[in-house]
Amino acid sequence: MNVSVKSKRIFLSSPHMGGTEMQHVQNAFSENYIAPLGTNVDRFEGKLRDYLSVSGALTTASGTAGLHLGLRLLGVSSNDLVLCQSFTFVATVNPILYQWAHPVFIDSESDTWNMDPDQLERAIKACLAGTLHEYSGLDFFKNRPPQLPKAIVPVHLYGMPANMDRILDIADRYGIPVLEDAAEALGSGIRGRMCGTFGEMGVFSFNGNKIITTSAGGALVSADPSHIENGLFLSSQARDPEIHYQHSMLGYNYRFSNVLAGIGVGQMEVLDEFIEKRRQNFDRYRDGLEGLPGIRFPMEPEGFFSNRWLTTLTFNRERYPTLRIPDLVAYFSEHNIECRPLWKPIHMQPLYHQYPFFGDGFSEHLFDSGICLPSGSNLSTDDVDLVICLLRQYLSACMG
Ligand SMILES: *Cc1c(COP(=O)(O)O)cnc(C)c1O
After folding, report:
1. Which CATH number applies to 21-268: 3.30.1330.10, 3.40.640.10, 3.40.630.10, 3.40.47.10?
2. How far apart, in whole angstroms, are the C-alpha atoms of residue 352 and residue 90?
3. Average pLDDT of 333-341?
4. How far is the CA of 5 from the centre of ligand 1 (A)?
5. What does the pLDDT look like over 23-35, one tens digit per residue?
6. Rounded to 5 degrees, what angle do the CA atoms 124, 99, 344 make?
7. Whether the CB of 161 sits within 6 Å of ligand 1
8. Which atom of ligand 1 is nearest to the CA of 67?
């Protein structure tokens, strides 16, 4: 195979149109519904409800807006505690600060790379014992009375479902609601139940690099109609039902555009095909790198189904003593290929490192030893094979 620099860049996960999107966008123009409501929004929400088998779906301006609404709907406010997965994109956590609440970070488990149920329970016990100051240098954790956390936010990262059986069991035992960040996990599930529908609410993102995209957008789903109704109210500036403009509560402009919803209607038609393609990418990488020592792919536990939004893998540091993730990313970049380190855990971020963290270092280890490979549903098998070939070459030079 020719491994010289490619002229066409291979992206990590680029938008992939199915073909009918423009037609639905055109409908919005024909009806002159260039607004944050209309038939495309209704149809897109309907398709999401059907696909997820959930009774309520509310589209939002972004996944981040959906997560913010979710916290508001759970009553999270100033000085509340929110238990949150640390190994994630910052958008999972920022809405906690938007509400002036305090995140308490939970490490990941090795099976799913998502919220570790044992660390979750440790953290709850510390909140209830009033001992969070032992885990944080921040003043406001000193002399805090015992406090029941207001919400649990697990993430289904890279499309892999979190260990929801155990997380829900713990959440139920302590009576804490769960808000799922399913931004990367549309179509993933456990034993036939879809990610985003396990907790009190779930949130999806349709940002440009997600499994389906509307360029920007998100959705909040829930089986509880009051969440959808109140969410719609809050996302429309919390306007009271008066003829004049009257407001008794603080609201937001978080509604979704009817033009962009047209893209979403078209994308829903090809979602299952895209998932199949992403899963094929994963299988091809795994088969193509088979036999290489010291590499590991996250595998689906029994009954779990991942949409394989991104194919990820980790390297055994002892096998590859000179391997540095930033160098590997740069190497691929020189070959016009976009790769990415795994998410840097939020408890390691300058903005958040002072908040309490419950863990044993697993997410830090992931950050230090893993990478995301190009995973789009529009990749060719040649693209995947080129990445495999280059990675094999690179690793042979790093072997100990
Ligand atoms: C993309 C993403 C979000 C945020 O979604 P936006 O639509 O970009 O606001 C939140 N959480 C995770 C894990 C994500 O990957």
Report:
1. 3.40.640.10
2. 10
3. 97
4. 32
5. 999 999 999 999 8
6. 65
7. no
8. 10
